Amino acid sequence: MKKELRLYFIRHGETQYNIEKRMQGFCDSPLTENGILQARSVGAGLTDIPFEAAYASDSQRVLDTAKFAIGNRNIQLTKDARLKEMNFGVLEAMLQTDIIAQHGDIVERLFSFTDMESKVQGGESFTELLTRTRAAVDDIIAKHKDTGGNILVFSHGVTIGFFIKSLLNMADYPHHDNCCVSVINVKDGVLMVEKVADPSFRDNGKLSLSLSID
């Protein structure tokens, strides 16, 4: 009998592009001081949970989040490019105001979810995003199905949100604030969403960090 798995999906901490309100998919920007604090906080909030392994997108903002969240815990971290954020093509690194002014119709069509094959120039569709995300998750599940336990998965807002949307058959995808946690239970091959974009691990961890400093 296969053992129960829980996958803890964590969005990366706040980045410079998040503050500047730039489109950030395959492009990257460093964590802010607040982003580092968020990563450390979510790690502190998850201290009481034993984790068997951790997986992360190969974007530096996610790898740094994972490093600060894991801290001194003996958890092996594996990079997987399939956990990257959606590729937004020509929109990458553009200011949101410029995107709305110059490409508003394209973005509105893309995020209406009426055509899963729709994509911006040089980018990828939601079908392509979900295909690679699901492949990565399936491989994680296959690797740990015999041992079970808890697994950390560090990724991105749209990537995690759209995967959750697909599991719950939601009309829209749930927004994930920086370092919020979604939890998926895997039992007998069935994926059940237990938590969606939960900020409590991060917020409680931040409180415990401040108390330890005091």
From TrEMBL:
Pfam families: His_Phos_1
Active-site residues annotated for this sequence: H12, E85
Name of the molecule in the record: Phosphoglycerate mutase
Entry GO terms, CC: cytosol
UniProt KW keywords: Hydrolase
Gene Ontology biological process terms from the UniProt entry: negative regulation of glycolytic process; regulation of pentose-phosphate shunt
Residues engaged in binding substrate: R11, H12, G13, E14, T15, Q16, Y17, N18, R61
Any one GO molecular function term: fructose-2,6-bisphosphate 2-phosphatase activity
Family annotation (InterPro entries): His_Pase_superF_clade-1, His_PPase_superfam, Phosphoglycerate_Mutase
